[in-house]
TrEMBL record:
Record-linked Pfam families: Acetyltransf_1, Acetyltransf_18
Domain of life: Eukaryota
Record-linked PANTHER family: BLL4206 PROTEIN, SLL0310 PROTEIN
Matches recorded under Gene3D superfamilies: 3.40.630.30, 3.40.630.90
Origin organism lineage: Eukaryota, Metazoa, Spiralia, Lophotrochozoa, Brachiopoda
InterPro entries in the cross-refs: Acyl/Acetyltrans_Enzymes (IPR052729), Acyl_CoA_acyltransferase (IPR016181), GNAT_dom (IPR000182), YitH/HolE_GNAT (IPR041496)
Organism, as annotated: Lingula anatina
Residue stretches making up the N-acetyltransferase domain: 16-160
Gene Ontology MF term list: acyltransferase activity, transferring groups other than amino-acyl groups
Coiled-coil stretches noted in the UniProt entry, renumbered to this chain: none
The gene coding this protein: LOC112042638
Protein name: Uncharacterized protein LOC112042638
Amino acid sequence: MSGASTVQMHDVTSGVIIRPATLEDLDELYEFTDQVHWEVSKETLKVLLELVEVGHYLVADLHGKIIGSYLIILLDGKNAMCNFLIVDQKYRGSSIAKKIVARTMENAGDRNVVIYSIYNRIQSNIKFGLKIGGQHVHLCEGRFDVGTLNSDAKMNHSVINVIPANEVDFEALLTYDTSINVFQRKKFLKAWLAKPSAISFAALTDGGEVVGYGQVQDAPRTKVISPLYADNPEAFKLLLKALLESIPTESRVNMFINVDYEAGMEVINKNKGTVKMLPEERGTFMYTKRNLEIPKFGSVFALTCIGSFPA
């Protein structure tokens, strides 16, 4: 960047205000997020704005226009998770990202901060002091053939029952959700399940034990599965089948998946002609102070909201 360009950029960014986002910003924040082609619906952003602590969804405001954003969720007194770090392409390379990250770290306090990093940001994040954790994720998108989800004939079909999630005792569903995410998110889960476009199913044993649940919802250009948890391959296939059959046949599906979930990767390989990994390199879990152990990450196929919660 030339000296003149540097001065000009400084003049512009000196007018940037880092401030809390509010519901009044929803329409503009949605358009801003959509500029980078993230499959995030307006109703999802609304849930996040309503649920995060005041001042923890930050935007960079330049003369009334949003040119940057960053979100932090305080998981508990020791851990926090960040997401939605976006800077308008015109202002990348300026100090905006540093400013909004610095303010976000102030909100984190002494907490351990964890993120999911896309592949091409891993080395940059290492330079900022983050370390590589254990879980690996991949953005997956395409059309699935429901016929590839036929269950193994050796499995007992009567063992797992898939029903609408609203027919399941909420506390039982919350207990299962907490077993996956470690951190209880009662208020979030209620709001997540209640989104207008959301269709959710739960997998139960004959004894009524929850062994998985999943949700599909609208997004700007696709449908998004977020999350899909299942403790065994049978529950996984039945949940994914129910979710896919609840949306139009030709719908494209978008999700962040656990690349070590064997049953899921088998299905993706059967659909490799219509389902792609984007990009080809996987992303990874990163942290500032200590790795965040998720004991049941093996039950996670698709994440809820990338970077907002561990699963």
